Design the sequence.
């Protein structure tokens, strides 16, 4: 078969798959009066996540400090010919420490964002209200 026939058959098969897998959704339910059930599950998860992140950060920082002290002692007590090898391992250590601190910082950002979303959903704070400077058209008509 020529390349053109293969392309036409492939395109027809893809179109057929798209047509057969398409789904129709008839959403006619009124969700304006939907009120979710209030639970304290999100508070429990948020509290547990905070503890885990704090423990991971503390352990990581502790290990990083111990490794830095050990590397410094090695460097100070090493012969001049061995100092070049220790500098190479110091570069690897610095990259690892930066990755450790970055990962824990990113986790902290996600935790903070999750807490803010949780407060917004549970009705604690709105996270930022929209203040209209100009009245909207329907407000002018009602007045």
Sequence:
């Amino acid at each position: 078969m020529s390349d053109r026939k293969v392309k036409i058959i492939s395109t027809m098969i893809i179109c057929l798959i798209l047509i057969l897998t398409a789904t129709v959704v008839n959403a006619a339910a009124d969700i304006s009066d939907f009120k979710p059930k209030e639970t304290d599950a999100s508070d429990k998860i948020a509290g547990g996540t905070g503890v885990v992140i704090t423990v991971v950060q503390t352990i990581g920082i502790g290990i990083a400090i111990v490794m830095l002290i050990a590397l410094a002692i090695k460097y100070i007590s090493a012969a001049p010919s061995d100092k070049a090898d220790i500098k190479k391992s110091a570069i690897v250590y610095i990259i690892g420490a930066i990755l450790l601190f970055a990962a824990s910082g990113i986790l902290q950002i996600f935790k903070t964002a999750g807490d803010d979303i949780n407060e917004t959903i549970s009705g604690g704070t709105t996270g930022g209200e929209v203040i209209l400077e100009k009245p909207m058209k329907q407000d002018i008509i009602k007045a």
